Amino acid sequence: MSVQSIRQSDYTPPPPPPPPRVETLRTSTPEAANATVAAMDANQADAFNAEVQALPASDRQTLLNDLATKLDAGNLVRLHETFGREAVADTVELRSGVETRETYQALTGTTPSGPSLPQLPAGMPPMDIARIEAQQVQRAQEDFAAQNIGSGALGAPYQLGTLASQHATEPAYLGELVRLANDAGVLDAATAPNWGLFSRDAEGGYMLAGADADSARSGLTTALGVAIERGVLSEGQIRHSAADNAGWREVASALGIDNVGRTQQTREAASALEELQNTYNDAKAEADTLNEELATHLLRAGPLTPEQQADFIEAFRSADGHADIYAAEADAGQALASHVEANRETLLAAAVRDPAVAAQMVDTLGQLADSGHGELALALLGEIQGVPDSALAGAFSAHTEALQGELFERIASAATVEIVARHDGDLQAAVADLKEAFAPLQNAKGLFDGVKGGISSFQDGMAMMDAIAAGDFDPLKKLGDEFGEASPFAHAMAGVGVVMGAIKASQSTQEGEYLEAVQGFASAGESGLNLLAGAAKHVADAGRLAQYGDDAARFATFAARLAPGLGVLASATSVAINVQKAAEDGNVGYAVAAMGDVFGMLGSAVALIPGPGTAAGSMVSGIGAVISAIGGFVGDAIDKHQTREELRGYMEAAGIEPAVIDAMLHAGETAHEVAGALGLDAEAFQALVIAHPDVAASPGHLGAFADLAAAAGISGDQVQGFADAMAGDKPDFAWDIFGLQSALPTSPAAREAMLRDYLEGNYGSAYAVAENASPELFGDAAQQQENARADYERNGFDMSYELALGNVLIRNDDPAYRAEMIRLLNEDGRLEIWVEGLAGYGGDWADATRASLDDAVAAGVIDRSTAEELQAALS
């Protein structure tokens, strides 16, 4: 047997494609779907037809929509029996690419009539084509300028059409002529009512009549057809121009462009959608106002325990019709989503005909994302942009920047939250659905422009999901570090990544790694802050919808599985808010507004997870971090919307003791700042103000006590004992140290030194507590360090500071004094310069400097090698 015959006998042909099934085709690649449909026999076709007919009408149309983006023209023709010839033709017209659409029309004999467009001779060498087209383009530019067509003269459209008719065999000339005319506004003039080239009188005749005018109209029509063919204009642009313009409608008809002009159906679709949009916007505005008030109240209420926070939030959300307002927002969002889902074909078809409906749909996508329906928004975005040269994509071409910008980020993070929530926080299970949800966008035009940000392709984005689900945050960190220059798709994947990462971090105790990974977003300015805040809001939205309708079991699952991730996200957002606050043009408006939803959801979730566990801890720390971060931004909203007595009522409902309520109402948001500075949790802070109410008599009293405690090295569980000791020394200590504030120096170091001295001279018992807690701040060594700081502030910034500081070191040979002086110079980055400045003086200055460097080494201020290098410069 020959080798060839052995090879032939060993050959096993590949198995035939499986028979077509609805689910198989829905998840198939275009290649697999085409192979499957092409291979089906009569029995398989009958079985497939029966399965499709059993589907609800909306699911049947959804399947056809998907197949119109996957199948070639021949296979689409084969589906006539399954879906109906008219349904397939209509769907192909809107959703298939140009090549598929034109081939389908040719196969079915439905090719629209239009002018015969000029082409260069077939088979011409590429170099010759390039040369000829360049010449044609140049002539078009010269003729356009020579006849001054862009001047805005009434005769410009006629001149334009005449030029087009004279060069009717030159495609590059015609394409360039249309481009120039479009940029100059001449095309709109040509189709303007009453005086345009296509204007008609009351009897229906052209206002500009005659053979020359007919030739100009024909020439311009041909030129417009060439412009569409060459990508200068799109059919979508012409359709939208024709919505309100009879001249453009005539041009579209002449070019064989279908689906042109408003209809009663498009008008009704726009009207119904607008009504639902307005209802949602009004309901959301009311809920946003309440969320702002809730954030303000929580800020003014001071540090609360998790249980108190939960009870406070519940009291607020159910008070004075608040529950109705929150329910109305959820109802309005659901009504909008239900309407869009039920009428998506009508709405998208209307958007193809009407630019106003296209704009409405773009706005609607954002509303869906913000109302807990991001998955629907993502599906619509995939339909719109999935086939770049489809009529549907063309209808939204004017909105590409919006659809691929911040809106895409919002949709991506919202959809991710919903998909992960559907899997109860199981990221590994959610990844497959996430990949399927984003798959329609893998060929979208423009999404992958720009390759920075760690995501340069669709496959990179899918790999990022796998990595984060496995606990690897490196791809997320790379995205954050290069966020500003990333592609639109990378920005959307950032929305996915920050959500998945927060949930993974809360599940795997990787909060620290996650917060480090998202530092790049926190530092990326307003766009990075809004990304984090938006992701947090979308997680909160998922919890709100889980809670809506009193589905206790559903919300309990959310609280246990996803709310801890919301706490981690809130902490990350608080970091970004603080970064933006430090920037000169920091804008945190959206983030602060989004945090209202986050407060409410975290508080409600904490109520279901009591105790100090990891899950509750993430939520509580998230609340505290954001409350601290937004301080100063919403603190005065209480005066605009609510009264002190209403705040008191919410605090009473939360079970807070009257003494604590009084103290909090007096201290305001300063209570959070002081609790954070002193390391006190809510329980410890409340115990402090119960025992010593005067400490919180005003924000100034509280701040004065915090300054003294910090100067004395007191924090955490030492604070209560310190305050008790002060009260034992002098019962009105809070008023005493409050009155001292005006006498304190402005220098931080001198201020702290004076506070310690005052404590030593007036509060013996409290001084002993402080000395025992922080011995390094008291005694001879501490006094010498204070002296060094005072001398440094006094002499360290003179023109001759080198000699001035050298002189004080000669006069004071105390090791603690000298080590502190070296530390201060080193901390300011001036140590090396200072040593070099003294090197020329020698003598006592050099000796004191060498000794001071040795003292600094002994104190651990600098290392030995640094000291030796500096000492060598003195010799």
UniProtKB/TrEMBL annotation:
Residues 1-27 are annotated as: Disordered. Residues 266-300 form a coiled coil. Keywords: Coiled coil. Residues 12-21 have a biased composition (Pro residues). Residues 1-11 have a biased composition (Polar residues). This is Uncharacterized protein. It comes from Luteimonas terrae. The lineage of its organism: Bacteria, Pseudomonadati, Pseudomonadota, Gammaproteobacteria, Lysobacterales.
